[in-house]
Structure formats: C-alpha cells, structure tokens
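Input set for joint prediction.
Command: fold jointly, output tokens.
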Amino acid sequence: MTAATFQVYNMFNIVIFGAPGSGKGTQSDKIIERYGLFHVSSGELLRDHIAHDTQLGRIADSYISQGLLIPDELMIRILLDHLDKNEDKIQKGLILDGFPRTVNQAVEFDSMADDHEIRVNAVIGLEANDQELIKRLLKRGIDSGRTDDNLEVINRRLKVYHDQTAPLREYYLERDLYCSINGEGSVDDIFANIVKEIELRMNK
Ligand code: AMP
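tokens >
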C-alpha cells in the first residue's frame, strides 16, 4: 500500500469485534455516521467478489458457504487491495468490521501498520451469548438471502469464532486496546456505551 499519503496522526482506526450476529454491522453504521470513518466489512468485500463472479470470489464462496474462514493470505490480499483503491476516502480513519478474524491476521495487519503507519486505536468488542446470537442470525436469515444464515452453518460459524477468532480478545487486551461492550440490549444503549469508549480513547 502506498500509505505515504495517509494522515496518520489525524486518523482514528477502530476494529469492531464480535461473534456472527453480535451487531457489528448495525453498530458500524452508527459509528460511521457519527465519526465519518471509512467502513471496511470483510464479509461484504467477499460477497461483492462472489456477486461479480471473480476468481477470488469463487474461492471465497467455497469457504463461506460452509461457514469456514477463508485463508489468511487471501483475506489480507483482498483487504489491502481494497484499502489501496480507496486511499483517498480514508481521511478520518477506518472501521474494520469482520477483520481481523485470526491472531495471524492481526499480526499481519500490525506489521503492515509498522510499515505504513496505520494502526488500530481501539477494538470495540460486542459480547453476547450464543443462544441470543443464534436467535438473531436465524431471524436475519429469513430476509438476508445469505447462504450461511442457516442453523447448520451458523453453528459451524460460532464454533469457528470460539476456536479461531475469540483468542484475539486476549491479543488486544494485552495491547490495552480492547473495550468490552455488552452486546445485548437496545441498539441505542449499546451505541451509547461504544461512544463513551471511543471518546475516552480519542482524548487520551
Ligand atoms: P461476515 O459477513 O463478517 O459474517 O463474514 C461472512 C463470512 O466471510 C465468514 O463466515 C467467513 O467465511 C468469511 N470472512 C469474513 N471475514 C473474514 C476474515 N477476516 N477472515 C476469513 N474469512 C472471513
């Protein structure tokens, strides 16, 4: 990435973190509206490739439809390509939604941060129990048309989350970046708690 043009010190970059169905997309929209951040949803990026029937999309589809993570290297390539193409839109910062999903992806992103001086400033962790998540995802599945919003694939996605993604909580806690947010309750109450955490960290 030719990040020389990034206004590093004015940027505030957020990772929105949580299991499938934890409300990452909903809360991202509200955060973007308030802070003008550039939204990067890894799931949407992949679905876009699938919709355009690209070669990467065809590979990604074979993992997504089974509820499995696509390989780190492929995910990082797609993400960097997207950031490169949108460099001019990333003035105030980024909200990363659905990325990183493995410790390896976080390490890769952080090493890129060193090279390009773009770093994560806060990780908003939306926490909710599995029964609530399953209920929400099944409800979403009625309208979403997503191939992965059915009970069998939802269960696999939750297992993948606990095995491969949840360890990131520890990774970000150790770096003093993790903000624990109760993801159950009204959208507005959850958002109010997120704003408190963001403001605390923006003003640090
Ligand atoms: P999402 O829309 O965030 O729920 O993502 C949908 C699916 O896309 C996931 O179940 C994975 O198969 C794939 N995916 C999204 N983000 C990532 C990522 N960071 N790493 C690997 N696979 C991903």
